Amino acid sequence: MIRVMQQKRWFCWAMLSAMGLSIVAAQSSQQEKQPYNILLIAVDDLNSWIGAMGGPAQTPNMDALAARGRLFTNAHCVTPACNPSRTALMTGQRPETTGQYGNPGNFRELPGGLQRVTLPQFLQNKGFETVAAGKIFHQPAGKGKTPNVLSDPESWTHQNPNNVGTGGHDVFLDEYGQARWLEGAMRKDIKGNAGAPYLTKFGVWGITSETKEETADWQNARFCADFLAQPQDKPFLLACGSFRPHSPQIVPKEFMDKYPLHQVQAPVFPEDDMKDLPAIAQTNFSSEFVSWVKRKGQLQLAMQAYLASISYADACIGEVLNALENSPYKNNTVVILFSDHGWQLGHKDRWEKYSLWRQATSMPLIISYPGMPSKGAVCEQAVSLLDIYPTVLSLNGWSLPEYLEGLTLKPQLERPGARRRQPAVVTFPQGNHAVIQGRWHYIHYEDGTEELYDQRLDRGQYYNLITQKRAGKIKRRLKVSLPQ
Hints:
Blueprint: H1 2-32, E1 37-43, H2 60-67, E2 70-72, E3 75-76, H3 82-91, H4 95-98, H5 119-125, E4 129-133, E5 158-159, H6 198-202, E6 205-207, H7 216-228, E7 236-242, E8 249-251, H8 253-256, H9 287-295, H10 299-325, E9 333-339, E10 344-345, E11 351-352, H11 358-361, E12 365-368, E13 378-379, E14 383-384, H12 388-395, H13 410-414, E15 424-427, E16 433-437, E17 440-444, E18 450-454, H14 471-479
Parallel strand pairs: 1-7, 1-9, 2-13, 3-14, 4-5, 4-7, 6-8
Antiparallel strand pairs: 2-12, 9-12, 10-11, 15-16, 16-17, 17-18
């Protein structure tokens, strides 16, 4: 009897000891587990024309990333302009909160700006090294003695001191600083010594005399590739920004050669496309420029150069992704590729961005991380760039601060069909909004006029359905998400 009791006591002691050792081991494992590194790849002014989204651009590196990650085919910016879009993404807050609605200005100088914690700053507080090359915030660091203030130096432990894009812009300008192909058109817009208006100066396309290796975007990509080849003693956020395909669309010859002009199909738009739009949406500052692009026979050339610029950006991205693949960090790094908004080439008489239509608001968003399920599957739910900040935190198991206004995409990363109840909301300019959810894209202008498009049947958004009987119920449901 005594022996049996001793055996029971020994068995209980052994079980408790094993349980204690297991708990200690689990705690030790948790403490030793390193958070995911983050590789952010920002592509300026990239619309949805990449190969993985069925577009005409040759983008093997972005396509390969989509094949091993999650491609969001219905992702939208917060604001279709560089500065407010990137501010929203990096702060996790909408322009109604930050006050940053347009390209001019610095969100840090607006009320509450100095207290805003950007994604890189949050990661710094978690012990991360934060390193940037190229354009991540509204401006790159530049080559000056101190980084450009619009690169938000407080967000980075180090920035690559370099410019962005490609050289050779001046060759394409006349003595007035305007595009030579305009042949003096729109010269009336030059007032005093103010210089040529933006589009007439930067709306050019052609071949740079620089080699690929001499261009700034390539050098920034190489900087990031070299960083990944070096041992790092801290977890890191590495942000690499490609300025192309942003204007001017000037690239090395090897990329233009990928698109022989006779094979390039210029966009074709319905002649009556503008008839069902409200007056407020008929024109903007770029509409006259679009008319000259068409009259001067430049649309096909512009299309060729835009596609070539996308392929050039893709090659730069390939340098970084190949370096990651050959680095010791490939099994512990989240890759997030995005653009700050879309891009228009004459769509609805618009050039570049600055509108609430899908062509300007939508862009590729690809997220890949080690061990993610359903690799290569796409998510068609409407999502926002506002969701990137909370997603990074969720993937590392951190709780979300209350100041974040987006949603984590972790459910869609784990299951691409996971339902998302919150729509994507786009604002531009202040007081004008688009609400995108499921198949519907609703636009509400500050004067109360509206548009409604069926994304499933009308990807080009040529048919405004707002006057149809069924539109009432749809718009009432989406209208509740308009910012107040």
